[in-house]
Amino acid sequence: MTTIFITGAAGALGSAVARAFDAAGANTVLIGRDTARLEAACGPANERRMLVAADLRDAASVAAAANAAIQRFGRIDALCNIAGGFAMGTPVHATTDAQWDELFDLNVRSLRNAVVAVVPGMLDGQGGKIVNIASGSARQGLANMGAYCASKDVVIRLTESMSAELRGQGINVNCVLPGTIDTPDNRASMPKADRSKWVAPEALADVIMYLCSPAARAIHGAAIPCT
Question: Which residues does the annotation mark as catalytic?
Answer without folding.
Answer: 148
